[in-house]
């Protein structure tokens, strides 16, 4: 599967994506090249509509329709079927979105335990890991709260814990603090980056915010369908 232990976590080669809408075709990605190394945290900047979310969807193997080559941890995703793509996602990738997408009927701790259970880990280990993460994010007193009983910043912290729960090689974050006020966004981003660095994951973080981007290891910019 993987050639060497030092394969990039993500390698995109000439990735394209077009959308046909109302008789008009928009070429959103026109040949994107990118390599993200293990443990590297990369900010993805670009104007609204430039294709940042589309690029994260490509890397997250969530949808088809992409041209070019997408490799995750040395695995060529274009050769994989739906179930195998899901397995790569489960084994390698964690996601954080602008809106938390937590399961509303489950508590904070349950939301962080569930993605771990899917990997077959014993429940007590999953719970220990969830408590450790939620504690580190300052939510040790909120373990049994459901999302509706948490503030926006707290909900987003639970989403961060959920994304990191399985210690993924790669975290994909799409405007992870985009719906938070500036002060809360700064705190949540700092906690997110510290945890990602601590566990040695790589991350690709889409943002509009140059100031937040400057805190990451490298900045890439999406413009006219290619990265600069
Ligand atoms: N399913 C779709 N069908 C048609 N067009 C789409 C679809 N998804 C995205 N697009 C178009 O692709 C372009 C890029 O969208 P995308 O959401 O990737 O941009 P973005 O950089 O993430 O924007 P923002 O920063 O505003 O979230 C937009 O012009 C959008 O209208």
Spell out the key features of this protein:
228 residues; alpha/beta; Rossmann fold; 6-stranded mixed β-sheet; 7 helices; 34% helix; globular; binds adenosine-5'-triphosphate; ATP-binding
Which ligands are bound? adenosine-5'-triphosphate
Number of helices: 7
How many structural domains in the coordinates? 1
Q: What is the CATH architecture annotation?
A: 3-Layer(aba) Sandwich
Shape: globular
Question: Terminal Cα separation, in Å?
Answer: 30 Å
- In CATH terms, the superfamily is P-loop containing nucleotide triphosphate hydrolases
Helicity range: 25-40%
Helix and strand element order: EEEHEEHEHHHEHEHEE
Describe the model.
The chain has a single domain (10-221), classed as Rossmann fold, CATH 3.40.50. Strands 6-7-8-3-9-10 form a six-stranded mixed beta sheet. It has helices spanning 52-59, 82-92, 108-117, 123-136, 152-164, 182-199, 210-213, and strands spanning 10-21, 24-36, 41-45, 67-72, 75-76, 93-96, 170-174, 202-207, 218-223, 226-227. The protein has 228 residues and is of the alpha/beta class. The model has no long low-confidence stretch (mean pLDDT 92). The protein has seven helices and ten strands. The structure holds adenosine-5'-triphosphate.
């Amino acid at each position: 599967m993987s050639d060497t232990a030092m394969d990039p976590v993500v390698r995109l080669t000439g990735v394209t994506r077009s959308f046909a809408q109302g008789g008009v075709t928009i070429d959103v990605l026109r040949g994107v090249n990118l390599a993200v190394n293990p443990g590297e945290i990369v900010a993805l900047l670009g104007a609204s509509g430039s294709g940042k979310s589309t690029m994260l969807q490509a890397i997250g193997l969530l949808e088809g329709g992409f041209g070019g080559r997408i490799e995750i941890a040395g695995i060529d995703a274009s050769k994989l079927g739906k179930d195998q793509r899901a397995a790569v996602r489960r084994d390698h990738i964690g996601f954080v979105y602008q809106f938390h997408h937590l399961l509303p009927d489950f508590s904070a701790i349950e939301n962080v335990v569930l993605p771990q259970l899917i990997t077959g880990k014993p429940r007590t280990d999953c719970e220990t890991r969830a408590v450790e993460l939620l504690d580190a994010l300052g939510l040790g007193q909120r373990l049994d709260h459901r999302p509706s009983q948490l503030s926006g910043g707290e909900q987003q912290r639970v989403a961060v814990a959920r994304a990191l729960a399985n210690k993924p090689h790669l975290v994909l974050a799409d405007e992870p603090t985009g719906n938070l006020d500036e002060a809360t966004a700064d705190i949540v981003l700092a906690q997110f980056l510290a945890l990602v660095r601590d566990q040695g994951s790589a991350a690709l973080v889409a943002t509009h915010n140059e100031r937040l981007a400057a805190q990451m290891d490298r900045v890439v910019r999406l413009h006219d369908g290619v990265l600069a």
